[in-house]
Amino acid sequence: MSSRLESDPAKATTPLLDALQAELAERASLGLLRQRRVLHGMQGVHVEVDGQRLLSFCSNDYLGLAAHPALISAMQDCAAAAGAGTGASHLVTGHQAAHEELEHTLQTFMGMPGILLFTTGYMANLGIITALCGREDAIFADKLNHASLNDAALLSRAEFKRYPHNDLASLEHMLAQSQARRKLVVADAVFSMDGDLAPVPELLALCDRYDAYLLLDDAHGFGVLGANGRGVLEHFALDSPRIIYMATLGKAAGAAGAFVAGPRILTDYLMQAARPYIYTTASPAPVAAAAMAGVKFIQQDYDRRAHLHGLIDRFRQACQLQRWQLMPSQTAIQPVVIGSNDEALQVSKRLLEKGILVPAIRPPTVPKGSARLRISLSATHSHDDIQQLISHLQMLEAA
After folding, report:
1. d(C-alpha 198, C-alpha 195), whole Å
2. All structural domains of the chain
3. Cβ neighbours, 10 Å, residue 222
4. Would you say the pTM of this structure is higher than 0.90?
5. pLDDT tens string 21-68
6. Per the omega criterion (within 30 degrees of 0), is the bond before 335 cis?
């Protein structure tokens, strides 16, 4: 007599699993199936991936701090003193001295009275938007915003309106028509797939005019933009109680985590109402210690940031393309739009054969027909690294 225990688990199926398999097959046929690579050793511009030594242009480690000895030492020392895990949420016993010190450091550095740490930028955006907005409110979002902002808007149950990318006239029309109790404009400060900046001064002016608030996700600007690395607000010399600022600590700062900055009453309220903050175990204290070391580099190492901006200028001046489009960007994100999914994948594959790692980004991450190479520059790249990339790009485009 057969039994369920005798069946082959690898061949077991259900209608749901059949449907999922069909969707995976369709994604593969369209060139949209994502795959993971395994990185061996530390993050950097020269990495070992799946056993191959590569020159990498795909990390968000913009200042090259992720493998810096000072951050590693800070993490090790804190782990020896505070342990590996926090064991509780921030509001129970998980808020350790390293978290408190990092918040004070960011408060001084940013010059903003309210600072609240989150485990990730995704959680920070979910926490901010769902705490501040509900059914009687309206959220106005740039169509190229990060997925976390869109997901948070949907979860909040507020009216969710999306305006064309950086289209101030469309946004103003929406704001003028809205009768919502509370209006929140949300935008990436630096758009992660295009590398361009939001028109932050103009967005803030509209918020002032229509009694709205402005949430800026500066994940890719913090540490890179501004004379002192304070991000998009310093870049535009802006300060307003209407601004809610979010930045991550896993990119230019070289560690992990995120923080929200703004008026103290805002962060006090988020501590009481932001569910992703309240209902999760606090991130390990050693991560906060490493992030603090990274923030100190942002504060003090002007040469590292200046070198990065020199590389950005060099790349944009020297990378002359005919068929493909180098998008306008003054940031470390330099996208080259190729168009078709298959060609973008093939170019990425050919670069890999040359020992250069550049990811192909395809829909739905970017609009249909705009598959691209997303080139990320780091302060630890050399001018020779940049020239090597440019030479191979131009050769492949001409092939």
Report:
1. 10
2. 70-300 (3.40.640.10), 301-334+343-399 (3.90.1150.10)
3. 32
4. yes
5. 999 999 998 878 888 889 999 999 999 998 899 999 999 999 999 999
6. no
